[in-house]
Amino acid sequence: MQNINWGIIGCGNVTEKKSGPAFNKVTGSQLVAVMRRDAEKAADYASRHNVGKWYNNADEVFNDPEINAIYIATPPSSHLEYTLAALQKGMAVYVEKPVAMNAAEAQHMAEAARTYGGKLVVAHYRRRLPMFLKVKELLDNKAIGDVRTIQMRLWQSRKPALVTKDAPNWRTDPNISGGGYFHDLAPHQLDLMLYFFGQPLRYQGFSLNQSGDTPADDHVTGSILFANNTVFNGSWCFNVAENENMDRCEIIGSEGSISFAVFGTSVTVKVGPREEVFEFEHPENIQHPMISSVVGYLNGEEANPCTIDEAITLMKIIDTFTTN
Prior knowledge:
The chain is of the alpha/beta class. The protein has two domains: about 5-125 and about 285-305, NAD(P)-binding Rossmann-like Domain (Rossmann fold, 3-Layer(aba) Sandwich); about 130-280, Dihydrodipicolinate Reductase, domain 2, CATH 3.30.360.10. The chain contains ten helices and 14 strands. Strands 8-9-10-7-11-12-13-14 form an eight-stranded mixed beta sheet, covered by helices on one side. It has a six-stranded parallel beta sheet with strand order 3-2-1-4-5-6, with helices on both faces. A hairpin with a 5-residue loop joins β12 (about 255-260) and β13. α4 (about 80-90) packs parallel to α5, α5 runs antiparallel to α10 and α8 (about 180-195) packs across α10. It starts with a strand and ends with a helix.
């Protein structure tokens, strides 16, 4: 097995617990360097996480001969630039979601990966969590018969509890995030739909800025028709009262239903009068299972757990839902 030596570009809040420590918990994987433009914060992160090297310039990461894989955890506006630079250097890339600002940038990444023969994985890590593997198992085994429709609602107040609190909040600056809270949270949800139901035939939607509190749209609605004739309807609203917060996905089949919160820890299955609830505890580092699969893929031991082509499809859906 080749040892995968990682460099992180953008060691901010998302890497503190969700991902960063997991790179040292996978056999054949090691986090050797971190980079952040703020040198003091980069040094502090390296000290607290026992990382041997830190940089405040991305070029130093790309030119470090010890590093052969890059984890890009910056805001989306710089994903394309850093992905292209890493691929040109012959490095493998694991890039945060949303993969890019839009589908055109994601397509550019895919072309670069093909040109340089590089390996590129997108961090849709919920695909590897036991909770969602259980949902996929239930669907594959037709536990609720043939799926007819999926109804998804994510309604949150103007400062969603689901979002890491950064200052300033780049997530509501479309020039940095590509949009608003929808672009930060919905990729988790929509990627699971692609993972569960496969290729979409067509999709449509719209968005608007109802509250005017930020430059970003705060209300999005969209529908997808999948190739198996399953119909998805989604509603995302980020301007409701706190007591109206909701995170619910209902998958309705010919014989029953599966329901869960994408950002929750339980799955409920109802078939006739019978109801069964499956409870889960996510890993301490929630990206640990995904990072394990990424290392396996980089070493040729398993398939790519989330390809750039899948992420392009996701970005096309997001663009359609939010481009009016």
